[in-house]
Amino acid sequence: MLHIVACIKQVPDSREIRIDPKTNTLVRQGVPAIVNYFDLHGVEEALRIKDEFGARVTVVTMGPPTAEKALSQCIAMGADEGVLVSDRAFAGADTLATSYVVALTVQKVEDTWGPVDIIFCGKQTLDGDTGQVGPGVACRLDIEQLTYVEKTEHLDINTREIIVHRHLEDGVERVKANLPVLITALAELNQPRRASLPGVLRGIRYKPIVWTTNDFPDIDRSKIGLKGSPTIVSKTWVPEPKQVDTEFLDTTDSKAAASHLLDRLYATGSLQNSVLA
Amino acid sequence: MADAKKKRKPMIGLQPEGDVDWSQYRGVLVVVEQRKGIAKPVSLQLLGEARRLAAKLDVPVLALVMGYQVSQLAQEAIYHGADKVYLCDSPELDHYRTRPYSRVCLHVIRKYLPEIVLMGATNTGRDLAGAIATHLPTGLTADSTQLDVDEERLLLASRPAFSEKMLATILCKQFKPQMATARAGVFEQLPRDPTRTGEVIPVPPQMDAQEISTEIIEFIESFRRVNLQDADVIVAGGRGLGGPAAFGLLEELAQELGGVVGASRAVVDLGWIGHDHQVGQTGVTVRPKLYIAVGISGAVQHVVGMQNSTCIVAINKDPNAPIFKIANYGLVGDLFQIVPALIEAVRARNGEAIPMNMPVNS
Ligand SMILES: Cc1cc2nc3c(=O)[nH]c(=O)nc-3n(C[C@H](O)[C@H](O)[C@H](O)COP(=O)(O)OP(=O)(O)OC[C@H]3O[C@@H](n4cnc5c(N)ncnc54)[C@H](O)[C@@H]3O)c2cc1C
Ligand SMILES: Nc1ncnc2c1ncn2[C@@H]1O[C@H](COP(=O)(O)O)[C@@H](O)[C@H]1O
Questions:
Q1: Which pLDDT score is estimated for B357?
Q2: Measured between CB atoms, which of A136, A147, A172 is closest to B222?
Q3: Is the pLDDT of residue A179 over 80?
Q4: Torsion angle, CA of B24/B130/B94/A173, rounded to 10 degrees?
Q5: Taking CB atoms and an 8 Å cutoff, what residues of chain B touch A269?
Q6: Residue B362 confidence (pLDDT)
Q7: Which residues of A fall within a CB distance of 8 Å from B122?
Q8: Which of B7, B12, B179 is the mutation pick for testing A, counting most A CBs within 10 A?
Q9: What is the mean pLDDT of the segment spanning B192-198?
Q10: According to CATH, where is 3.40.50.620 located in chain B?
C-alpha cells in the first residue's frame, strides 16, 4: 500500500494580525491559529490518492504543543496518523533548520510505518512565506521534487510513475517522475473536503504522536532551532503607510469622469500613449 | 521497491564541503533564468542590481547561464551588466529540472566561490534556490524587495513579512555564499549595452542524461496565461462584477490599455476566472504602473498584493470601500456605467492616434 506524508504547519490567521499604530509592532494576541492554507491542499490530494488506490496518510508538523489542533483537523478530514514534533530546542528555526527536522521526521515515519512514496508540502506558508522548506526536505531525503503542482494527471502504483502539471508563470509543464517524490501543492490542485461527522468525532478524540529531540538520538543539535538557522532577522520595520490623497472624480456623468481620468493618467505618465511615443 | 528503500541517511544533515575560508568568496553571482534562450525580465533586473552591489564591494558581477543552445544569452548577460559568465550549454538542460540544474549551480558556486548568489523569485528560481541552499548549506532569503551590503560585506536582504505588513532585513553571517531570491519588477534593469565586453567561461554539465529520472513530457505555453508580474497595466475585477460575463468588459479595457486582467480571490473561488489571475497574498504580488480595481472591496489580503502599484484607480459603488484608502483616483459609482465609458474614451484616444502608425498602402 502507498504511504503518503503530508507536511503541515499551524500559522496565525494573517487576517487578524494588526500593527499597533502606537508601538509599530505586531499585535498577535488573540490571533487564531489555522492550518496553513496551501497545506490543506496537500492533505486533500493525499486523501484523494488514498480514496482511489488505498494509502496510509501520515500528517506531520513541527511546532508548539498547540499544533495538535492542526493535526486533529487533518485527522478529521481522513488522515490516518498525526505526528507532532515539538521541543523547545526547535524554536526559532529558519527554513534550513526546519527542513532538517522535517526530513528527520519523515525518516522516522518510514522507520516506524514503512517507506514513504509521496510527500506533500504546501506551496508556501502564510507566515514564513518562502516555499523553501519543501525543496529543502526533498534535497535532504535525496528524492525528486515537483514544486508548484496544480494537477495530478496520472499515478500508476505498479510502475510507480506519476505525471503532474507544474504551474509556471508562462505555462504549464507536464512532468513525469518515479516515486518517491515530494510535491508542493497549489490551491488549484483540489478543493479540500469538509470533515464528515464521524471524522470530526475521530479528530476530537485523536491524540497525536508526539516526538521530541529525545526521539531522535542521532540529531545534530547544532542544526536545529535558532542555533541551526543561518538567517538572522536583523531588523523589522513597518513601512511608512503610503500617504495617498485620494482624488475622487465626479461620476455623475460617466463619460466626463472617464475622460477626466484618462487626462490625469496620461498627464502623470501612468499611461503612455505608445502610438504617439 | 528498491528506490523507496534506498538508504537516505547520509544526505539529511548537510555540511559545507571542503575548506571553509569564507574570505575567499568574492563576487556577486546572478543565476539567469531563461526560456528558449530569452532571459526572464527579473534576471536582467538582478544583473542591474548586482552591478550596484558589486560596485560597493569592489568585485565583479558574475552570471550563470544554463540551458541548451543558449550561448547567445551569455553575451546578453554581459550586455546587461555581467563581467564573467559561466555557461553550461547541454541538451539535458533544455528544460529546467531541479537536479541537473542544481548540480551545475553547486559546481559553479564551489569552484568559483561567489559571496552573494541572486535568483528571481519565480517558481523556477524558488525551486532551484531552495535545493541549492540546503545542499551547500547556507542561508537563503526569499522574495527580497530591497538589497544592500554593509561595511562587513554582509548582504542585507529585505523582504515583506507578516502578509506584507512589515519589512524585515535578513542577514546570513554563518555561511557563504549569502543567497536571496528577489521579486520581479522591483529592481532596475540597465540599458542593454552591446559595447560591453566580458569573459564567457564554459562549464560542463554535472549529470549524465540517464541519471536524471524526471522527464518533461511537454511544456504548454499559455499565451493566454496572464503574466501579472511583468504587466505595466492591470485591470482587476472583484465580486462587484456580479458574474463571469462582466470580465469581458475588463478584458476589453485591458486590451485597449495594453494591460492584463487581474482578480480578487473571491471571484477566483467563485470560478468566474482562473487562478492565475489572482492578485494578493495567496495569489501574485504585482507592481504595475497602473492598477485599476473594479468592484473590489480592498481586503488586506488583496491590498498586500497590489499596494505598491505606482498608480491605483478604484471603481466601487460603496464610498466607504477600504480600497479607496490606497487609491490615487477614486470613482464612486456603478462599474457598469463607468467601465464602458472608460473603454469608449480610451478607444476614442487610441483611434485618433492609430492612423499615424498605419502603413500608407494597406
Ligand atoms: C488566508 C487567506 C488568504 C487570502 N488571499 C487573498 C488573495 O490573495 N487575494 C484576494 O483578493 N483575496 C484574498 N483573500 C480573500 C479576501 O479576504 C477577500 O475575501 C476578497 O479579497 C474579497 O474579494 P472582493 O473584493 O472581490 O469581494 P467583496 O469583498 O465582496 O467586494 C466586492 C465589492 O464590489 C463592490 N460592488 C458591488 N457591485 C458593484 C457595482 N455594480 N459597481 C461597482 N462596485 C460594486 C462592493 O461595494 C464591494 O466593495 C484571502 C483570504 C484568506 C482567509
Ligand atoms: N514547521 C513545519 N512543520 C511541517 N511542515 C512545514 C513546517 N514549516 C513548513 N512546512 C512545510 O513546508 C511548506 C513551505 O513552507 P515555507 O518554506 O515556510 O513557506 C509548508 O507549506 C509546509 O508544507
A1: 43
A2: A172
A3: yes
A4: -170
A5: 289
A6: 36
A7: 168-169
A8: B12
A9: 97
A10: 24-211
Tell if the CB–CB gap between A254 and B333 is shorter than 8 Å. yes
E runs forming strands in chain B: 28-32, 34-35, 38-39, 61-67, 84-89, 116-120, 140-144, 146-149, 155-161, 166-172, 178-182, 199-202, 215-221, 233-237, 260-263, 290-294, 311-316, 329-332
- Does A127 sit within 8 Å of B290, measured CB to CB? no
Is B24-211 in CATH node 3.40.640.10? no
**295-314 of B, contacting A, C-beta below 8 A:** 299-301, 307, 310-314
pTM, entire model: 0.83
Q: How confident is the model at residue B355 (pLDDT cuts 50, 70, 90)?
A: very low
Instruction: Return the sign of the alpha-carbon dihedral for residues A114, A119, A120, A126.
Output: positive
User: What letter does residue B4 receive in the DSSP assignment?
Assistant: H
- Is residue A65 a part of any domain in this protein? yes
- What is the structure's pLDDT at B164? 72
Q: Ligand 1 test: best mutation among B241, B250, B278, B301, most atoms within 8 Å of CB?
A: B301
pLDDT of residue A241: 66
The beta-carbon neighbor of A139 closest among B9, B134, B327 is B134
What residues have CB less than 8 Å from B78, skipping those under 6 apart?
B63, B85, B196, B197, B198, B200
Q: Are residues A162 and A260 in the same domain?
A: no
- Nearest ligand atom owner, CA of A15: 1
Give dist(CA A24, CA B204) in Å, integer: 51
Q: Any idea which architecture B233-348 has in CATH?
A: 3-Layer(aba) Sandwich (3.40)
Dist. CA A76–CA B262, nearest whole Å: 35
In a domain, A203, yes or no: yes
8 Å CB contact of A230 and B170 = no
Cell numbers at A238, concatenated: 513597518
Tally the domains of chain A. 2
What separation in angstroms does the CA of B154 have from each of A248, A260, B24?
46, 49, 14
The verdict on A273 touching B (C-beta cutoff 8 Å) is yes
Structure confidence by residue, pLDDT tens digits, A181-230: 999 999 999 999 999 999 999 999 999 999 999 999 999 999 999 999 99
Question: Would an 8 Å CB–CB cutoff place B222 in contact with chain A?
Answer: yes
Q: Residue written as cell 553571517?
A: B173
* Chain A residue with Cα closest to B176: A230
Which residue range forms the structural domain that includes residue A277? 245-277
CB contact under 8 A, B139 and A141: no
The ligand 2 atom nearest the CA atom of A93: 1
* pLDDT at position A76: 98
